Amino acid sequence: MKRLLLLLPLLLLASGLSSCSRQVKAKHPVSYSFKSGRTAMLKDGLAYAPRNAPMAVKRAIAAGNRLQNKPYKWGGGHAKHLDSGYDCSGTVSYVLRESGLMKGSMPSKGYFSYGNKGEGDWITVYVRNGHVFMTVAGLRLDTGGPGGRSGPRWKPQTRAGAGHVMRHPSGL
């Protein structure tokens, strides 16, 4: 009986009943549509937070703005907080750290267990094997998409959400 109890977590993992299978998966494309007071405004490559956004959201947008001219750099943002370039998970880690919503940094797969399940009201992290991006006040911050890798950029273009798990910081 003891052996069976010790093997149960392994059996659940092998059968696909792990915590990842209980994740909330995105079913719709991630798209941006400006809504006054609810979404960030994008002008000349910079995002502007709604006036009524929580302070953590305003800090997240300011952090994302600081990354706008940085190139894509594999591993960027992990060994050094202030780096010369950022990869996908380095970008998300930087923004969440700067907004006070996380300590340290994580590789993309670490975001499968970040925060709470599902879409957030203000911030949503989208994660799949090998990639992570986020929306802040409805505006996508991503290093990937059509055309390949770019540095961290605010992207109003629609991106497929299928295959991504949604997570969000508690309360946001």
Number of strands: 8
Instruction: Give the H and E element order.
Output: HEEHHEEEEEE
CATH-defined architecture? Alpha-Beta Complex
Count of domain modules: 1
Structural class: alpha+beta
The low-pLDDT segments are 1-21
Fourth-level CATH superfamily: endopeptidase domain like (from Nostoc punctiforme)
Largest sheet: 6 strands, antiparallel
The radius of gyration computed from the alpha-carbon positions, rounded to a whole number of angstroms, is: 17 Å
Strand order of the largest sheet: 3-8-4-5-6-7
Top CATH class: Alpha Beta
Percent helix among the residues?
10-25%
Which fold name is given in CATH as the topology?
Answer: endopeptidase fold (from Nostoc punctiforme)
Mean pLDDT, all residues? 87
| Count of alpha and pi helical runs | 3
Distance between the termini: 43 Å
Strand content: 15-25%
Outline type: globular
Region (Disordered): 144-172
InterPro entries: Papain-like_cys_pep_sf
Signal peptide: 1-26
Keywords: Signal
